[in-house]
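Good morning,

Attaching, inline, the backbone tokens for the sequence recovery test we're adding to the shared suite. The designed sequence is right after.
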């Protein structure tokens, strides 16, 4: 297993190198950028230099006056030592901005993912065990509604009902108006209250696919020969479901858990934007719209690293869940 992990890590490094190169090339080839918009603004000032002169000067300052390959290796040399430069849009170091917003997204993503797992997997199993029953139909309808609902529509609907009509929650933001005047416990409850609607939005929209995935795999396992053999031997139904069937259903579910790692940190761009949560999703959207190449590069490389790590963890967990899995 140690050799396998080392081999996969080396593969991840090679993949990450080419992913970073492609992302950098795409960012450099975008039709507009923050530098161009700043050059236009400064060129429009009375008595200022021309747009072309400003653009050449700013490109030299930000290192955009060299070719893509040379510029990439220049960026890579700094990125290896975790120096991603200053954000053009926020005017602070990229890592400082990242550290100030990542935990908002992590809390939102972690809580949503935990609720999704503890709700979707049991409901998917129950739906499979009671196939074609009223419970199965109810779970299926609920899952299809969740899959079909667009995030922006459901979030807006929640805000209309619970914020505007009932007044239970604020329309947007992460803290209330009187946050600074509250005690430590009051501040925690105030922030938790602002997380309710965004969390419900993510859970309802995401839960359907997990339930359907669990149900489908559980049905496949329940129709296996060894399950029929266990029942024929008189094994109690509860043990058949919880011990024999569920353990084998875990293998494909591990794929979901491993693949969900990027989602815990990447932020929910649409949800964070609608509720104005200052997380990494909303901040990265502002950076990309503003042509902020340093922050956008860091964010996409960060997501690529999480995706590779999530895939590696999923492969390792296969052997933990199913001892029959061996790495050759």
């Amino acid at each position: 297993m140690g050799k396998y992990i080392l081999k996969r890590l080396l593969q991840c490094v090679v993949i990450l190198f080419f992913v970073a190169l492609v992302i950098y090339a795409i960012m450099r080839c975008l039709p507009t950028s923050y530098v161009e918009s700043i050059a236009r603004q400064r060129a429009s000032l009375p008595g200022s230099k021309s747009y072309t002169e400003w653009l050449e000067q700013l490109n030299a300052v930000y290192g955009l006056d060299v070719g893509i390959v040379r510029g990439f290796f220049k960026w890579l040399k700094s990125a290896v030592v975790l120096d991603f430069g200053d954000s053009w849009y926020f005017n602070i170091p990229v890592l400082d901005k990242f550290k100030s917003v990542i935990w908002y997204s992590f809390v939102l993503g972690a809580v949503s993912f935990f609720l999704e797992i503890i709700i979707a997997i049991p409901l998917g199993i129950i739906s499979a065990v009671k196939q074609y029953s009223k419970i199965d139909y109810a779970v299926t309808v609920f899952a299809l509604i969740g899959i079909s609902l667009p995030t922006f529509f459901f979030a807006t609907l929640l805000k209309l009902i619970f914020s505007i009509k009932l007044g239970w929650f604020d329309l947007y933001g992460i803290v209330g108006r009187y946050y600074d005047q509250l005690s430590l416990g009051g501040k925690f409850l105030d922030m938790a209250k602002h997380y309710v609607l965004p969390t419900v939005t993510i859970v309802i929209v995401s839960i359907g696919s997990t339930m359907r995935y669990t149900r489908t795999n559980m049905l496949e396992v329940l129709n296996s020969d060894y399950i029929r053999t266990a029942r024929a031997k008189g094994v109690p139904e509860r043990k058949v479901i919880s011990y024999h069937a569920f353990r084998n259903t875990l293998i494909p579910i591990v794929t979901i858990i491993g693949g969900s790692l990027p989602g815990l940190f990447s932020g929910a761009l649409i949800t964070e934007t609608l509720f104005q949560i200052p997380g990494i999703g909303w901040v990265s959207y502002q950076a990309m719209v503003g042509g902020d190449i340093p922050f956008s590069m860091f964010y996409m490389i960060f997501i690529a690293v999480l995706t590779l790590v999530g895939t590696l963890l999923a492969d390792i967990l296969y052997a933990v869940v199913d001892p029959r899995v061996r790495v050759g």
